[in-house]
Structures are given as structure tokens and as C-alpha cells.
Amino acid sequence: MKKKVMIGMSGGVDSSVAAYLLKQQGYDVIGVTMKLWQDDDDELIENEGGCCSLAAVEDARKVADSIGIPFYVLNFSDVFKEKVIEPFIDEYLNGRTPNPCIACNKHIKFDDFFKKARQIGCDYVATGHYAKIEKDEENNRFLLKKSVTDKKDQTYALYNLTQEQLEHTLLPIGEYEKDKVREIAKEMGMDVHNKPDSQEICFVKDNDYAGYVKKHSKKRIEEGYFVDTKGNVLGKHNGIINYTIGQRKGLGIAFGKPMFVVDINAKRNTVVLGDNEDIFNKELIAKDVNFIPFDDIDEPKRVQAKIRYSAKPSPATIYKIRQNTIKIVFDEPQRAITKGQSVVMYDGDVVIGGGIID
């Protein structure tokens, strides 16, 4: 019997080609678009929102029809609100800078979506992520590895995958360069072959995170004070949600020299400013850590680690503090280590794991 796979289709070129490749490989493929959020802005629902706008659903449906697979829209909006949107708002209110795409992968795409697929008898789930999954036969572990193209590699957002999820997940385009993926889509006559990549968070219009938090928060956003690293008051800020670590522009006040956001203290409602050198640090604590090639570490371990999606991995040593919590010490200072973002660790092209910077 054919193995059955449920693939998440965003209406973009990557998931469209992934679905086509799975069909070519002989799988029984079911295409699904996840309805993830609701908004009272009709224009936003129609055109924006990347992977779950009405326009994206229609693009995905056309592709499914063209390659001859069934297509469904499943509603995950309630769980998305609970596990992604509400924590996103809370994190900003607490002076942190969250990554909702990582939360979505952890809680929605590879948890609720994964469970739904297994419930209806699917052997696998699949997505259009640029990453690879391989079996380490010697240690009987599944590994998450970088895709063939560093430029598009998306392993940073997938570090939460468990062994069970890795065993039942297919990532068909991890072996392909982006240009080749677009070429396949064009050869297949897919209208999405030249569709631009989505760059923004799907539920935030125009990348205005602060505006979104202000609109949807039940808590009033209060003005507070800019202070220097010694606690001296420098002026007023218009709410901590408007700032992030390392920020220089858009502070709304002139100091006669470049000043950078060094820290955000939600309890005191202060934004700490300092010089450029003040935003470099060699150490961080990470919580909610997930390891992939092994269950835990007991001894210090050398890795390469990166503190944001676009960064290059840097040499570092990791130390266990307690269960699911580690300290990472980099060989060289890192710029703007930001609470709420993720740190992801590598050994060459193998993902060691990751966690939330605390």
C-alpha cells in the first residue's frame, strides 16, 4: 500500500513543489491549508497574512488540483490564538522579543497538525521547509540537518522537533536550491512559480509589531523612562513594546551621540540605553531546551550557535544548569542577545538543539 502523507500547503512555491515531489515519489498525498488566525480587517484576511490569507488558500487549491491531490482547509485558529498570538503579546508586554514562527512550528505545524494527520491514518506529515531529516543508524536517532543551501536553510525554526515527529516528517525540498524549486514549479505550469517569499509575520500587518500588540492587548501601554546603564534618567519613552535590544534608530529623542537599547525592564517600565559596546555579550541562559541527537548533556559540549535566524553560527561551549536549561558561553562577544528569541546549536550541518533566550 502507498504511504499516506498530509502536507501543509501555504500557497507558496516551496510547499507547492514539495507536494508535487511527494506525488512523484509515489506517496498518497493530501494537501491541507491551515486556517490559523482571524482578523477584523477584511483586506488583511483577503490579501495579507502569507500562508493563510484567502488568496493563499486559492493558490494552494489550484496547485492541488493541478497535481491531482485532494485539498482541504483545516481550522486551527483557536489553538493558534492560544499558543502563538497570546504568548506573542505577553512576551512584548514583558520586555521580550518573541519569534512566533518558532512557536507556530512547535505547537501548530508539528503538534496539532501532526496529531490530526496521525488520527486520520497518515504515515507522515510534510512541509516546504528547507531542511533535511536523516536516520543515524548507529545511535538509532533521527537527525535534523541543514538543507543544501545555507542561504535558505530553515533549521533555525525547527529545533523543537522530537524524535517521534522527525520519524514521521518528510521535507522534500531540503535537497534543492531555491532556484531549482522555482524552475520545477515553472515547468509544471504552477502560477506560484514566481510568487515572492513571505517575509513578514502572517498576523501582523506591515511588520508593525508594536501597533498589533497595542491594538490587541488588554493592558494599557504606559509611557516610561529611558535610563543609562547606571540608572540615570535620560528622557521619556512611549512604551516598552516599541523597542528591542540593539535598536538605535526610532528612539524619538536625540542624545548628541549614537545610543542603543541595552535592556528592557518591564517591572520598572524602563528602557536602558548605552554605547555600542554595551550591546555585546558572550553569555546567555536558554530555557525550554530541546536536544535532537541525544536526550541531554552532562558534560560541557562544544558547538556552533546562533542567536537569530540571519546570523552565522559562532563557536561556543554549552553547560547544563538544570533540566531543559543551559548556559552558553561564546568564544567571541555576540551583538544584541535578545530575551525571547531562540538560540540554536549546531555540530557542522547537524542541529544539536535550541532553546529560548532567557
UniProtKB/TrEMBL annotation:
Write down the chemical reaction(s) this protein catalyses: S-sulfanyl-L-cysteinyl-[protein] + uridine(34) in tRNA + AH2 + ATP = 2-thiouridine(34) in tRNA + L-cysteinyl-[protein] + A + AMP + diphosphate + H(+)
- Keyword terms of this UniProt record: ATP-binding, Cytoplasm, Disulfide bond, Nucleotide-binding, RNA-binding, Transferase, tRNA processing, tRNA-binding
Which molecular function terms from Gene Ontology are attached?
tRNA-uridine 2-sulfurtransferase activity
Q: Where is the Rhodanese domain?
A: 5-46
Site positions per UniProt: Interaction with tRNA: 129, 341
Q: Where in the cell is it found?
A: Cytoplasm
Q: Which Pfam families match?
A: tRNA_Me_trans (PF03054), tRNA_Me_trans_C (PF20258), tRNA_Me_trans_M (PF20259)
Record region (Interaction with tRNA): 152-154, 308-309
Query: Which residues are involved in binding ATP?
Result: 8-15, 34, 128
Stated EC number for the protein is 2.8.1.13
Identify which top EC class this enzyme belongs to: transferase
Keyword ATP-binding set for record? yes
Specify the domain of life of the species encoding this protein.
Answer: Bacteria
Q: Which NCBIfam families match?
A: PRK00143.1, trmU
This chain's function reads: Catalyzes the 2-thiolation of uridine at the wobble position (U34) of tRNA, leading to the formation of s(2)U34.
Q: Can you say what this protein is called? A: tRNA-specific 2-thiouridylase MnmA
- From what organism does this protein derive? Romboutsia sedimentorum
